[in-house]
Design goal:
The complex is a heterodimer of chains A (about 170) and B (about 525). Chain A is of the alpha+beta class. Chain A has a domain of about 100 residues: Sandwich (Immunoglobulin-like), CATH 2.60.40. Chain A contains 2 helices and 11 strands; from the N terminus they run αβββαββββββββ. Chain A is elongated. The mean pLDDT of chain A is about 95. In chain B, strands 7-6-8-9 form a 4-stranded parallel β-sheet, with helices on both faces. A two-stranded antiparallel ribbon of chain B has the order 2-5. Chain B contains 17 helices and 9 strands. The model of chain B has no long low-confidence stretch (mean pLDDT about 90). Chain B is elongated, with a radius of gyration of 29 Å. The chains are: A alpha+beta (about 170), B alpha/beta (about 525). Chains A and B meet through helix 1, strand 1, strand 2, strand 7 and strand 10 of A and helix 1, helix 4, helix 6, helix 8 and strand 1 of B. Strand 1 of chain A pairs antiparallel with strand 1 of chain B, so a sheet runs across the interface.
Chain lengths: ~170, ~525
């Protein structure tokens, strides 16, 4: 059962509640957190790109086409699945990423994807990005080697856009 | 080991609650209103959020500017509302954490209470999701940090076709459409949270979803004061060409984000393990449950008092299943019943004055029957105790918890019907009755203290009859750590009883049950 509470006690309760709220306010944006050390920047290596098909398309024979319903008579039989992509990133001649990236999706028909973040010291760096998306066993189909200057706290993104000629800085 | 941890934490809560009880009384004690405060803060966040949304520009280009507009040009209303929104959200985390730890410390999460505990686990997730999606919308440096880290964390799970972190790759990546999706999420997730909160309280009756008005007003005043003195501000516009570092984190919502930077897999493992462990806690180990209450239809007329008093929604009135001329009878949901015995205390059939036949009542606990209460009373009265003789009705979970030898020990003091007190005094079995229940701010069975207080005050059926001399009744609401206070109050009560001019009715010949007679002989 509630009993009447005197004004001084209510003021005391207010002080308690204000104290808790101040505690909440104080830790709602402090202390600060440093995601990367001072005098460093970030290079993001990320792309979403489909490699060649798993095998070459095959021209259907006239007999095969005749057996298909009229609306499905496409001259080429192309496999749905895609090849994996081999990608590599080197910073100052040190390979920091080198991996075969499988196609996405249950049917392996989606693009290969990568998103990686690398923290580098501020200053000039030689970045080499390479990619293989064809059936060739060695070597690369796309490459970009470039000296970039990274300022403290800068975020550079290296993407791959075939329509723009390959690797691009964003 | 777990019991030891529980007791240690409970001692801390006892100390804090005692202090707040002394300051403002149990009704306004914020620690006794954590659930209600949680709901109240939710509504503050909801109302302030709607207000802010009306003035918010959801486009990614203008989101930050519109939030800045709150805090600079319209600080007196929109800025204050923004601070309310932020700080009330943070307080929700504080209140939720305290509520969770307190229920754990008080051992109110096992047995029939498992449902409230388990449904509280998704509440934690949805509260965090609500807060985190809200931070994105400000689109300042903190929002940028949260957006990139959250999406990198989500991308660790093999569920998204394309890495969603690519949406934050460079300034040109982010689209208004994606930002609109975030706005939708920040509205939808809190609605799910509210739904989960509703489920969370389904297995308790009379859930406290509104704090006392004075406590609510003081909470609002505290929020207003802090909002004026330290308004919530942004941390500079987001710029995806830069890394937001250092960034001021909200440590209530984002304490684990630094771990996400270091190892998303480890963070997911930690979250999964913590979630599973929390969800399984009611069975680690399971509570040794007493048998649930049973109904004796021969003594139940379906009056519904027990249904009204049950704190756990374990009783229902259902159509009569026997031939007695009543419309309804009581049915017990054994899964919900925590065997507190409050139903026995509320049953009009629980009268110890009956001398013919076995002392059955309408609803009873098989392990602590009403008949055994009367037997115990006679047993204690038959002891050669110095005057004044006392009957101490003690709750297992209060200060009298470990005193089973000297007292009438019950799972809840409200399991004793008021007529038992009348019987003890009017028959001259004792000179005074002490009701030693849980602390007023921490009743183990939620409503036991309140119901007992109201029954004695004649405000709740079954009432303690007016003829019972109130000066011979002492109520002590004390936690297990307040044994010394209980002793002090009992000693003072004994001294008062000794000075009472009018003696209680002389001992009368009492029809003792046969078992008691045997025990006495």
């Amino acid at each position: 059962m509630s009993r009447p509470v005197s004004v001084p006690r209510l003021i005391g309760l207010f002080a308690v509640l204000a104290g808790v709220t101040t505690f909440a306010a104080a830790f709602s944006n402090a202390p600060a957190y440093r995601q990367i050390p001072a005098a460093t920047g970030v290079i993001k290596f990320s792309f979403s790109h489909s490699a060649d098909r798993g095998r070459e398309c095959r021209r259907r024979t006239p007999e095969e086409l005749a057996k298909l319903p009229p609306n499905m008579r496409r001259p080429f039989d192309c496999p749905r699945s895609r090849r994996g992509i081999f990608a590599e990133l080197a910073i100052d001649n040190v390979v920091v990423f080198s991996k075969e990236l499988p196609p996405s999706g249950f049917a392996k028909d989606g693009p290969s994807q990568i998103y990686r973040r690398f923290t580098v010291a501020a200053g000039s760096h030689t970045i080499a990005a390479r990619l293989r998306d064809t059936p060739r066993a060695s070597g690369f189909d796309h490459e970009r080697i470039e000296a970039v200057s990274v300022s403290p706290g800068q975020s550079l993104a290296l993407d791959f856009r075939p329509e723009h000629g390959g690797f691009i800085w964003r | 080991m777990i019991a030891l941890v529980r007791r240690s934490i409970a001692r801390g809560f006892d100390a804090a609650e005692r202090g707040l009880n002394r300051l403002a009384g149990p009704a306004l004690n914020p620690l006794a209103q954590l659930g209600a405060l949680g709901f109240f803060l939710f509504w503050i966040v909801a109302v302030s959020g709607i207000y802010l949304f009306m003035l918010f520009d959801t486009g990614v280009e203008n989101a930050h500017a519109s939030v800045e507009w709150y805090s600079t040009r319209h600080a007196w209303h929109a800025g204050v509302m923004r601070s309310f929104h932020r700080y009330a959200s943070d307080l929700m985390v504080v209140v939720m954490a305290l509520h969770l730890v307190r229920e754990f410390a008080r051992d109110r999460y096992r047995g029939g209470r498992w449902f409230s505990w388990v449904t509280g686990v998704p509440v934690i997730w949805f509260l965090y999701m609500s807060g985190i999606t809200g931070y994105w919308l400000v689109w300042d440096q903190l929002a940028q940090y949260i957006a990139t880290t959250s999406t990198e964390l989500l991308d660790w799970l093999p569920i998204f076709g394309e890495p969603i972190a690519r949406n934050f790759l460079a300034p040109s990546s982010l689209s208004n459409r994606f930002f609109t999706l975030l706005v939708f999420l920040h509205i939808a997730v809190p609605l799910v949270l509210l739904f989960m909160l509703w489920i969370h309280i389904q297995r308790i009756t009379r859930p406290k979803v509104n704090p006392p008005r004075m406590l609510a007003a003081l909470t609002m005043l505290a929020l207003l004061a802090v909002s004026i003195v330290k308004p919530a501000l942004s941390q500079g516009a987001a710029d995806l060409a830069k890394v937001p570092s250092p960034v001021g984190l909200d440590w209530f919502y984002l304490p684990l984000y630094p771990l996400a930077d270091a190892s998303p897999g480890a963070l997911w493992g930690l979250l999964a393990a913590a979630t599973v462990m929390l969800a399984l806690m009611p069975w680690l180990p399971p509570l040794r449950r007493m048998k649930p209450a049973t109904v004796d239809l021969d003594h139940c007329n379906g009056c519904g008092r027990c249904v009204e008093d049950c704190p756990y929604d374990a009783l229902q009135l259902v159509p009569r299943s026997d031939k007695l001329p009543y419309v309804v009878e009581v049915a017990v949901d054994a899964d919900k019943c925590v065997s507190c015995g409050i139903c026995t205390g509320s049953c009009p059939s629980s009268t110890p004055f009956r001398s013919v036949g076995p002392l059955d009542t309408g609803i009873d606990l098989p392990d602590v029957t009403f008949a055994s209460m009367r037997e115990r009373l006679h047993e204690l009265a038959a002891r050669d105790a110095p005057s004044p003789r006392l009957l101490v009705i003690g709750c297992w979970h209060g200060a009298a918890g470990g005193r089973g030898e000297e007292i009438l020990s019950l799972p809840c003091v409200a399991a004793a019907p008021p007529s038992l007190i009348d019987y003890a005094l009017s028959r001259g079995l004792v000179d005074g009755v002490v009701i030693a229940g849980c602390s007023e701010s921490a009743c183990y069975n939620r409503l036991g203290v309140e119901w007992m207080q109201q029954r004695i005050a004649g405000e709740r059926d079954p009432y303690l009859r007016a003829r019972v001399p109130r000066e011979r009744i002492l109520s002590v609401w004390a936690s297990p750590t307040e044994g010394a206070r209980l002793d002090r109050e009992i000693d003072a009560f004994k001294a008062r009883l000794a000075t009472l001019a009018q003696e209680p009715p002389q001992r009368q010949a009492v029809d003792m049950p046969a078992s008691v007679k045997e025990a006495a002989s």
